[in-house]
Write a structure and sequence with these properties.
The structure holds two protein chains of two kinds.
Chain A lengths: L4 H20 L2 H12 L9 H5 L1 H21 L6 H13 L6 H17 L8 H6 L5 H9 L4 H30 L6 H19 L17 H18 L3 H11 L10 H4 L2 H21 L6 H13 L6 H17 L7 H9 L4 H7 L1 H21 L7 H22 L8
Helix pairs in contact in A: 1-4, 2-4, 4-5, 5-15, 6-9, 8-9, 9-10, 10-20, 11-14, 12-14, 14-15, 15-17, 16-17, 16-18, 16-19, 17-19, 18-19, 19-20
Chain B lengths: L2 H17 L6 E8 L2 E8 L5 H11 L5 H4 L17 H4 L4 E6 L4 E8 L14
The chains are: A mainly alpha, B alpha+beta.
Chain lengths: 417, 125
């Protein structure tokens, strides 16, 4: 097992969330909600706050995060920005789509894939952890379309394992397609695979209407969780020699964020923690200002930002993309706190490396294109890809990379090398 | 990954790194043995001490199978953006970078599980 105090911080953090869910919410409601999540439909948008209550949802997210940490420790994975990104992405999406049986089936599929190619499972660990984007397929087959629960469960398990087996080769190719300019590469991968999966299901006359579980209420639990989490990371970042840490934090802002950008290795652990706290706090303030509901998906977006602020996102590369989304939404006269727009705003930061590498204008264009596309991509695949923004972001990144590369080859634009 | 494919990717990424500085000379030397390969790449471009320090920090992370198995596949597939030696550093047995009289020398050792580093005179830290 890896002995690293950062893992201890993560473990203590998620245990604290479990305790919080039992302290603030009724014990039996929390347990019942947790059980309900394991057998509920999980396609987009399935806000577990609306389906199973806040206590059960937080318990589900914390248990899944601890399972991921256990797997990382078992495989002796050293702490890095990717670890924070993976763990907090799992926590965030376990608020609206990931549950234990589906995630274990998918991990098992990726494990088989590693055996087939005679690779060590550790080499595919991040594909497995991020790959849980396709978890809704399990619940779709097991609980939504099957009349026999036993056959449904078996079918869901086998189908999800098969998807897990295909994830590594496709994920690696998708990475090359957008050249690392889309941070949620598995979102692009899962979206690509979802096109096949949803087409197969539709050919079998299975209706894939999007779900509409979107809690309009503010959870209020966010007041305890989000600002305190940000504060925790800011304190961890500024602990000892704060002036030096702030200097390193400023240096971190010059990173392009292109995959893989492990800020912990390239800058420092403390500067990374500071970046995580500050960036997430800014987005939380934006959520409050726009009066967006702090439900499962919105909190999921904030926690994904928290994780990826250790693995590619910073203020300089995220803000231009987000401004592109907001300006386009205003031009299209769509409410900034409507479900698709607030989620697009938070998750559009998947395109941060575009702004980080090619500048503010490219970032604004990327954000604008992202919003135009993302409103429809979930419908294409019946909501079975949880990382819908990663899919749209991947398509936008691939398009922009192709155009920029073409312009550069024709010497029309010159990139700073 | 097949060994030939891996070597092509490494050479491609390192060559990209060297050529983006527009040198007048680049030499790639490959020495192959039963269980390992030594690659030496030289150029004639002088770099500042800070640049060398940053590069050494980037490549000295050591083997990281959890990152190389996935993100390491970007090595040698770079269309846009800067070449990145960290992608190489994660997946090889050892990588070293030294200043020469004219420029830079990058030594890379690639080996199988039976790789015997003593045969290859890897600098002791």
């Amino acid at each position: 097992m890896v002995k690293d105090y950062n893992y201890h911080i993560l473990i203590i953090y998620f245990i604290a969330i479990i305790l919080l869910s039992f302290i603030f919410f009724d014990f039996y409601d929390t347990i019942n909600g947790f059980i309900k999540i394991q057998a509920s439909a999980s396609r987009l948008i399935a806000d577990y706050f609306a389906i199973a209550g806040i206590g059960g949802t937080l318990l589900n997210a914390s248990v899944l995060s601890l399972l991921s940490i256990f797997l990382l420790l078992l495989l002796k994975v050293k702490i890095s920005g990717a670890v924070f990104a993976a763990v907090f992405t799992i926590f965030g999406f376990a608020l609206f789509g990931k549950n234990i049986p589906s995630i274990l089936s998918l991990w098992f599929g990726v494990f088989i894939s590693s055996r087939i190619t005679k690779k060590r499972f550790i080499e595919y660990i991040f594909i497995a952890l991020f790959g849980s984007a396709l978890c809704p397929v399990f619940s779709l087959i097991s609980f939504e379309i099957s009349s026999n629960p036993l056959i449904g469960l078996l079918g869901g398990f086998l189908f999800t394992v098969m998807i897990g087996m295909f994830l590594p080769p496709v994920a690696i190719y998708m990475l090359r397609l957008h050249q690392g300019y889309n941070l949620y590469n598995i979102g692009m991968t899962a979206g690509f695979l979802s096109l096949f999966i949803s087409s197969i299901l539709r050919n079998l006359k299975i209706d894939l209407k999007l779900l509409e579980f979107w809690s309009q209420k503010s959870s209020h639990i966010d007041i305890f969780i989000v600002p305190l989490t940000c504060l925790l990371f800011i304190i961890l970042g500024l602990y000892k020699k704060p002036k030096e840490k702030i200097k390193a934090f400023i240096e971190l802002q010059s990173e392009t964020g292109r995959l893989p950008s492990d800020f912990i290795t390239s800058i420092s652990k403390e500067a990374t923690f500071l970046n995580m706290g500050v960036l997430t706090l800014i987005f939380y303030i934006y959520v409050i200002i726009t009066k967006s509901p702090t439900n499962g998906p919105v909190l999921g977006g904030l926690f994904t930002i928290l994780g990826f602020a250790a693995f590619g996102k910073n203020l300089r590369n995220s803000i231009p993309v987000v401004i592109g989304v907001i300006l386009t939404a205003l031009l299209l006269q769509i409410e900034l706190n409507s479900p698709s727009i607030i989620l697009a705003t938070l998750f559009s930061t998947t395109l941060a490396p575009i702004a980080g590498t090619f500048g503010v204008i490219a970032g604004l264009i990327a954000g604008s294109l992202h919003l135009i596309l993302v409103q429809f991509t979930a419908g294409w695949v019946g909501g079975i890809n949880l990382y819908n923004n990663g899919f749209a972001g991947g398509l936008v990144a691939t398009f922009l990379v192709a155009i920029i590369d073409w312009l550069e080859n024709a010497s029309i634009v010159k990139l700073k090398r | 990954m097949k060994q030939v494919e891996m070597i092509v990717k490494i050479i491609s990424e390192v060559a990209h790194f060297i050529l983006q500085e527009d040198p007048n000379r680049m030499v790639i030397s490959l020495h192959k043995e039963k269980d390992g390969i030594h690659l030496a790449i030289l150029d004639d471009k002088k770099r500042s001490k800070k640049e060398i320090e940053n590069l050494k920090r980037t490549i000295s992370i050591g083997q990281r199978p959890e990152l190389s198995g996935y993100y390491g596949n970007l090595a040698g597939n770079n269309l846009l953006g800067e070449a990145r030696l960290d992608l190489i550093g994660w997946q090889v047995k050892y990588i070293d970078l030294n200043e020469t009289r004219d420029g830079l020398k990058i030594d890379i050792w690639v080996g199988s599980e039976d790789f015997d580093k003593d045969k290859f005179n890897i600098p002791k830290k």
